[in-house]
Backbone:
């Protein structure tokens, strides 16, 4: 149902460069069909790649995430699963791929949309955006922080303001979206990004990008040793 709703979603249809997570075998919404649809329809697809930080310091995580391109359906089908059961880019091929962040062999053009996983999500009544709870490693939040710090991706005169041309959407099972009836709320800190919207397992799209709110800009990570 999420797949059917997504492929009819105009921002997805118009997106040419999409970042998307590759799912664990269970516990989160599967993305194989989305990846295949995107590649078959001529979109450039970028998936997470985890690696050790090249500038290790007390202020940065030991491991960080970048997003690198999938070349084709055959390339996707050839990916091996890691210890978590997640299809993973081989370190032997990563240098020849386009990287979204600095250090790529090819200058990145950025992304139009990122489809993100999470443990739980809810709607923030104050900002009118979606709050996301990750697994606690901070991979996506730190990736987004570095993404908007990349010189080739910054808008002139707006180094401290997130770009509005990258849509952030979560994908969630119904049980992962907390409604107001549950009485529960996602904790959000100064370093956590809010999302424009979410597609839920019942096929519903909860879209906050037209709510009139402002996307949350986390504080600088420069003085933070770990990310949540």
Residues:
């Amino acid at each position: 149902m999420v797949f059917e709703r997504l492929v009819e979603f105009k921002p997805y249809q118009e997106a040419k460069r999409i970042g998307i997570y590759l799912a664990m075998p269970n516990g989160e919404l599967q993305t194989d069909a989305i990846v295949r649809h995107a590649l078959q329809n001529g979109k450039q697809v970028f998936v997470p790649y985890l690696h050790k930080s090249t500038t290790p310091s007390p202020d940065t995580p030991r491991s960080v995430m970048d997003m690198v391109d999938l070349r084709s359906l055959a390339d996707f089908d050839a990916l091996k699963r890691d210890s978590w059961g997640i299809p993973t880019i081989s370190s032997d091929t990563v240098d020849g791929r386009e990287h979204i962040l600095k250090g790529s062999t090819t200058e990145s053009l950025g992304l139009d949309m990122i489809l993100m996983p999470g443990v739980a999500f809810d709607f923030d009544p104050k900002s009118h955006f979606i709050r996301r709870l990750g697994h606690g490693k901070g991979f996506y939040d730190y990736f987004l922080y570095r993404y908007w710090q990349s010189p080739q991706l910054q808008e002139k005169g707006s180094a401290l303001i997130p770009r509005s041309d990258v849509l952030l959407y979560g994908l969630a099972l119904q049980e992962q979206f907390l409604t107001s009836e549950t009485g529960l709320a996602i904790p959000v800190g100064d370093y956590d990004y809010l999302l424009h919207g979410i597609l839920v397992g019942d096929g519903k799209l909860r879209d906050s990008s037209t709510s009139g709110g402002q996307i949350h800009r986390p504080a600088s990570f420069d003085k933070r040793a770990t990310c949540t």
